[in-house]
Amino acid sequence: MSKGKIILNESKFHLTLERLAQELIERYGDFSNCCIIGIQEKGVILSERLISIINERKKKLDIRFGKLDITFYRDDFRTRVNPITANTTDIEFMLDGKEVILVDDVLYTGRTIQSALSALQDYGRPAKVQLLVMVDRRFNRHLPIQPDFTGLLVDSLDEAYVKVLHKEIDKKDQVLLFPIKD
Asked: What backbone phi and psi angles, to 5 degrees, belong to 108?
């Protein structure tokens, strides 16, 4: 893959995380009737970082947090050439009546979020589900799914690729845009 163009550098990445955390604090206050669910794998990393920032600002709130694997809820898992490996789902509480903040790194077609919404049903009936994404590729949606909290809007052609790098995996925080393949 060719070298991507940096569209969000490390310092702006951190500012974006700070802004998203502040938006959550303003919306949910003490987080008493809500929980944060990260979609494996990068949504979990993003969730953990947001929770860390919130706890720095709000004196260690008890925010319910879960990790959601959607592997077997995907509409394409049977059509893959190579076998896919599932991650762990770790949700130790029921979602009945709670406001769920569902977190992922990139919203593209909406299929991942559709799968996550199906998977969440195994844990009860939430009062509300809100979507937080680091990057919204808004012109490529296959399904009518929109984020409630967005770090960065990216308008790119279908063939272009957006990648979110996290220091926990990639040793740096950045968002890259890769050009259309030749």
From this structure: -120, -90
